[in-house]
Here is the input.
Amino acid sequence: MAMFGCPEILAAILCLVFLFQLLWNRSKRDPLLTDWPILGMLPPLVLNLWQVHEFVTQVLKKKGGTGEFRGPWFTKLNYLVTLDPMNVHHMMSKNFGNYVKGPEFREIFEAFGDGIFTADSEQWKHNRAMLHSVFKSRSFEMFLERLIQKKVRSNLIPVVNHMQKQGTVVDLQDVFNRQTLPTSLWKLQKWIQIGEEKKMTRACKIFDQFLHECIASKRKELNGKYGKNEMEEHHLDLLTVLIKGRDTITSGLTWFFWLVVTHPLVERKILQEIEENFAAKEGDSMILGMEEVKNLIYLHCAICESLRLFPPIPFERKQAIEHDMLPSGHHVYPNENILISLYAMGRSEEIWGKDCLEFKPERWISKKGGIVHVPSYKFISFNAGPRTCLGKDLSFVQMKIVASAILWNYSIQVVEDHPISPSLSIVLLMKYGLKVRITKRGI
Ligand code: HEM
Here is the structure.
């Protein structure tokens, strides 16, 4: 009887793996990378983790904008990845009801609580309606305007001024971040009641009281729709939203400052615009208000441009409920996960043209001197459709107040050879911070 030796068995196994691999590949829709047995597409991704956003951008570009990523066998790490604005429009607006955050997202982002960031369907609608009414209230806007101005005047400018006098190297990202204590530390300190946190608790009580009044003023119009406990939940949701919003502002400001100070012509145009509008204003502080910053069109465009190239939230994840077909022709299966690369969309030639990698605020200025409207499914940094960021207007106001105050008073030079690269995190920060030297302008 003929017996099989080791080499034959090995060859048979290899043939089986090869055959399996062929069949496996055939079942896929536009694989983004080589799909290895067992490990799937993980190896090339892991090798490029240090530059993951650039890598995803290049891969999507090569594959025409949409394709499938398959993780290791028997894991749930499978995603349809896209940068196609028509797909985004479809998922975020046209067939919005079919694309949710999903239970897995809630599990991963448990720390966000079950507020607006993780909720779906009726729960989300409920939270959104409540927060929307608060965000659009004039008294809330005015409160935040005063809060931002006070922070810039009493915290940010004195800190920057001190560092300028010391003449040492400063991490600007850290400076922006320190204006906003990390949530966990804040919560921990609150719980154990130590140090500055005692003061913090008192401050929070006052802030809470204000928020309560804000919400109470809305109670009348919402009366009958919500019960008392629900009101308290919304109150907490608002605090979570404000805390989460701060991380994105830190990211937005850090990339904005890096781009502006490394593009002297843009910096000069921003200063010129401030001078034309406010030179006669108020001594040297230049802490503007909400209405005043509306006049700073070029600054607005420079902020849009930096948020396009470095969106503070670089990925958006969705989960399909039912079968669907995307405009790109890709079939979507029930429960399938979809990943939208906001970073890659900001660098797409199809959306922004051949000069998409250049920092050019001018692309946002219309022929009449206004701001070009780009639909949110193309300029996706604040998300698109019914789930568009609720803090978008507030973010522009805050970034404009901070940017005008710092740029007007100080000149910033990035430390030579300081490496600039994005971190691997939910919010797109700079991995090594933004190391700069600061001097008083005009000296
Ligand atoms: C430059 C600053 C900001 C950027 C780029 C930004 C971007 C985004 C993005 C991409 C989302 C969608 C996230 C997701 O679906 O997982 C989002 C949602 C949201 N943002 Fe912002 N955000 C910024 C600042 C803020 C601020 C300051 C606030 C509030 C004070 C805020 C409040 C919200 C809320 C409430 C949502 C949830 C909207 C919903 O699901 O209906 N954001 N933001």
Remarks:
- The first strand starts at residue 66 and ends at 70.
